[in-house]
Amino acid sequence: MRKVKIVSTGKYLPKTVVTSMDVAKKMNTTAAWVEKKSGVKKRHFATDETSPQMGAKAALEALENAGIEFNKIDALIGTCGTPAQPIPCTAALIQEALEEKESGVPCFDINSTCLSFVTGLDVASSLIEQGRFNRILLVSSERASVGLNYQEKESASLMGDGAAAVIIERSNESSHIICSKMETYSSGARHAEIKGGGSNLHAIRGENAKEQDFYFKMDGKKIFKQASQMILPFIDRLFFNTNINIQDFDLVIPHQASGMGLRVIQKKLKLKDHQFYNYIEDHGNTVASSIPMGLHNAITKNKIKRGDKVLLLGTSAGFSVGGVAFEY
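User: That's the sequence. What structure does it adopt?
Assistant: Structure tokens below.
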């Protein structure tokens, strides 16, 4: 049992609201098609802000809600699925945007695409349990809109921008991590990817590089099939050494992958509406910030209270599936 507590959360959404009609015009289709296919009616796009700037704003809210100064943070971990740039890590750029350039607070990234926050929470809670750190700030910030290819309607209709931040620390109360697990099956590694931008396909020196290589590409049918087949066996393995089951949770916060995917997963897990948090309609799929944003929403809207059992659950490009269960 890892005695770790979620102290506070923060969230930031860019000011530009993009409706299903706005997206439909770019794809030469209808708003009804966009909403039926994605489950998204509106999302937010960043127009004049960077990912680190958005992350800093979410972090400031989390710090304010906790009533602590940045110098009380032992580490800042960037849990972003789409890095702001290859070097340096996004966490360092968030520290810079926070105007804490000389703080000395260690910054590093944990990237497992859409599961980055879940993985980060798992790793960070272990570091606290081991005594390496006492208080950690996790920040997920995503500007997915810059990588959309509107010729690929399925993925372009889904995505949104935004940031979320969570502060965790050692707990002297009942709050704790119940269990956690992550599995990766790289047979699905090519189902969702951005090929360009790294050393495999450099923007300038990459041989035969094409513009579309730098856009997000997704095979939704293959991802949906793989996720549907794996989710129930994964849940069994996640809870294997515990005395709990999925019905014991007050709230399950899933990655907001797609409207259809959320409906299928809820049905497979046999969860009632009050146990399963679906908020994709007015946020879209915000990559790694999706789950911590849902956590922030759930806390601020009193969907969970201290002592409740919460499960963070999702899939990510890789193909990976992961979850962290905790008592809030």
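The domain at 4-172 is CATH 3.40.47.10 (Peroxisomal Thiolase; Chain A, domain 1).
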